[in-house]
Amino acid sequence: MRALLLWLLFTGCSGGVGELPNIIIIFADDLGYGDLGVQGHPTIRTPHLDRMAAEGLRFTQFYTGASVCTPSRAALLTGRLPVRSGMAGDNLRVIFPPSPGGLPDEEVTIAEMLKGAGYATGAIGKWHLGHREGQLPTSHGFDYYFGIPYSNDMSPANSGGARAQTYPPLPLMRNTDIIEEEPDQRLLTRRYTEEAVTYIRAHANRPFFLYIPHSMPHIPLFASEAFEGTSARGLYGDVIEELDWSVGHVLSAVREIGQEENTLVFFTSDNGPWITAHLAGGTAGLLKDGKGTTWEGGMRVPGVAWWPGTIAAGGITQALATTMDFFATAAGLSGMATPKDRIMDSVDLMPVLQEPAQRVRDMVYYYRGRRLFAVRQGSWKLHYFTQSAYVGDLPVAQDPPALYQLDQDPSERFNVADRYPEVITGIEEAVRLHRATLVMAPSQLRVPEWE
Ligand code: MG
Asked: What is the 3-state secondary structure (H, E, C) of 360-411?
């Protein structure tokens, strides 16, 4: 019945299955805008990601759908703002081991859509959208799952927090089975990579969608013996350099099966760096603040696209784009249509991937929980509320709203609201229309079911 409903949602039809491109999304956890060599980090070495960018396209203005793990993952997989799917909590909630709920069944994931086009679908890494029966990746369109179902600090063995002492041992899962408890986290990145390479090799002759949400560099940090102690940046750098090694192996596997001209690979991060973790957290480079905030450092992340023969080598684009755009992009590539019975926040990125000067979206909405904190329109960003630090600081109302010109002031240093009242008027009109899309479909605006 569910399969039939999904089929009915999509009005498009796929072309020849053999021609469909593979899609791989590599999703780091809490990796900041400034944490890669190609993004300007002075002491973290990322030769594979640097090469991926040199052979592909790098986005300088790429955004996540939220500033923390759970809603960010919901946004990527559904192509919708978390406030629409019920995956935005009151404040900055994420799913914890005692949380009862997960991604609602009514949501359609990229994996469910691509299955309709005949894709094999795999998820390897951290899920964090519900971990009980019926909530795991295999219940949301993935044929195969390997990884940990929530964050790597949510365990008695790996968190200093008193609450974590009441949690069960961290599970490592294959599909719906717990295959280990408290796996050696030094080996997580390596094991995910081996699983990903095996998956790619096994699908040399069939279109596949592979989603690789790494557990790292979310704290506590772990690197394997081959990387620990090797980076000038310390353990954080070791972890990033191992992730870079992993990216190199994934791209090599794609080349090995002869699918490099038939595979779109995208590398990004789920939110900004955990800067309140001090040296255990990364950096947003010249962007302000980090994880948990709606300053640029919280939600603007690295974005690197690679598809030899389709994406020209060495491109850089200033186009606005978000993780939610993967949905429409994947729909376009697979010949499927996006769901028509709900409001999507997703635009097809192919025009930008093929011509970096193209623009496909003008607006970015920065929610913290269910509250709209800031809005970007073109190069302008208006803040209604701000906060700093992932934990501790309370939101501050910006009344009147604060305006920054991001193209000229990427670090959000100078509030120019007094000088551009007409810009504010234009943004507020766009916000009024946006809010109307939230109230037009009240059934889509759920109170979180998972808290
Ligand atoms: Mg995260």
From this structure: CCCEEEEEECCEEEEEEECCEEEEEEECCCCCCCCCEEEEEEEEEECCCCCC
